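Need the bound structure for iron/sulfur cluster, inputs here:
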Amino acid sequence: MNVSRRDFLKFCGASAATLGLTATDLGHLKEVLANPAGPNVIWLQGSGCTGCSVSLLNLISSSAPLNAADLLIKSINLRYHPNLMALAGDSAVAEVEKVYSIGGYVLAVEGGVPTKFGGNACLAWSFNSQDVTFQHAVMDLANRAAAILCIGTCASWGGIAAAPPNPTGVKGVKAHTGRTTINIAGCPPHPDWIVWGVVQLLLGKAITLDIYGRPRTLFSGESLHEHCPRKETEEAELFGIDRQCLEELGCRGPRTKAPCPQMLWNNKANWCIDANAPCIGCTNPNFPDPLPFYQEVDD
Ligand code: FSX
Ligand code: SF4
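Answer from helper R.:
Posting the output first, comments after.
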């Protein structure tokens, strides 16, 4: 099968449709987004690479929210984010304390939770000259959160941060806190998936999860391989060859669920396989297993 980029883009619907948002939802969303009293959001970063935040900052959409600024400034009250807030030091942490005392906020967690060494491998912050470990901050804040969004595979299950031999004992947020989490998988997750999660919460919609805590709307159904334009093409034996299947080069598409082929990345410019990079299965709970990458796996 030889699929041109034009044909490929044709079968990729608009994000709103792909994400199952109806016209009524979009109308309701417009009202919610116009409400200055959006929900409080605390965004924590633990053991990860900050790529999840960077992915969100790459958001470009034709419908509201149009970009990350639109989402973060107009739609929600982002009360704490280590990279994006203007406050710093004790005054930043005081914001967290304020929101915590009100309760009912959305806790967004990026990065895994290191649990060895008394949690001292990762500090959330210092407050009044006292160090607070990330594991302690997550546990405390999870207790009074209305919902917990795990942004990325590290926060969901440990991900790269928990890869063997996992010297700092990294765990996912659910494994650490025992609380139900909404796992927006991916290393990093697509910005539209993160926005989708936030929008569902803004709309007051229940999110149905699969057995791994991932939203079924985003991560259920057929494997990514079933929607790949390279399905049933000749097997590539070398990297860098267009339009050939990458299974022998280690593609994890047949064992991975994610709407990458339908949605594309970077403002619909491309996705891993179209750039001749095998899928590495970054939305899977056991990611990065099986290692090494780029080696064929038996299914
Ligand atoms: Fe993990 Fe976030 Fe991968 Fe990185 O910090 S999901 S390593 S892209 O960005 O947590
Ligand atoms: Fe596409 Fe990978 Fe499946 Fe080949 S193995 S068809 S490259 S998803």
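Comments: Residues 221-299 form a domain with the Cytochrome-c3 Hydrogenase; Chain A, domain 2 fold (CATH 4.10.480.10). The CA atoms of residues 13 and 262 lie 7 Å apart.
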